[in-house]
Amino acid sequence: MKNILYLLLALASCGISAQTTAEEYLNSAVSKFYLNDMKGAIVSYTKAIEIDTNYVEAYRKRGLAKETLKDYSGAIVDYTKAIEIDPNYAPAYRDRGIAKGKLKDHTGVVEDYTRAIEIDSNYAIDYYNRGVSKFYLGDMIGACKDARKAQALGDDASILIKKVCN
């Protein structure tokens, strides 16, 4: 059902007019993203941003498209802009943390997930991902604490717990 919706949105996006709104470009970009047209999605996200330079979701989703293309540095730039616009937008911290992890910036990962946890302390994967980076940084006590918190919130952190909590 979801794929049919995205296909319909993609077909509708072919008729974009000169007065297209930022939201229409975002919807077009989302359709292209789900049809695995990342370059086309990036173009549409960029057009949405040109219309509304404070469109947090367009920056975040353009970052996701760049990350899919393994442009981690470019993704980080977009996530950072989303965070500048809305410092309480936890999804952008989470996504930036993932991109930083791909670049092995574990200190940056810990910082981003710490901020995401400050915003929303009930998201188990934030603790898990922060714990993994703490493990890579040699902080076994912190990694264990985060792994146990992730598990308490419903994440299966047993592999990390076995590695760091013994």
Structure description:
With 166 residues, this protein is an all-alpha fold. 75% of the residues lie in helices and 0% in strands. The protein contains ten helices and no strands. The chain has helices at 2-12, 22-34, 38-51, 56-68, 72-85, 90-102, 106-119, 124-136, 140-152, 158-164. The longest helix has 14 residues, at 38-51. The model is unreliable at 5-9 (pLDDT under 50).
Keywords:
mainly alpha; 166 residues; 10 helices
In round numbers, the mean pLDDT is: 91
Through-space gap between termini? 46 Å
Rg, please?
18 Å
What does the largest sheet look like? none
Please give the share of residues in helix. Answer: over 70%
Low-confidence stretches: 5-9
Task: Kindly name the structural category.
Answer: mainly alpha
In brief:
With about 170 residues, the protein is mainly alpha-helical. The chain is built from ten helices and no strands.
List the helices and strands and how they pair.
Elements: H1 2-12, H2 22-34, H3 38-51, H4 56-68, H5 72-85, H6 90-102, H7 106-119, H8 124-136, H9 140-152, H10 158-164
Helix pairs in contact: 1-2, 2-3, 3-4, 4-5, 4-6, 5-6, 6-7, 7-8, 8-9, 9-10
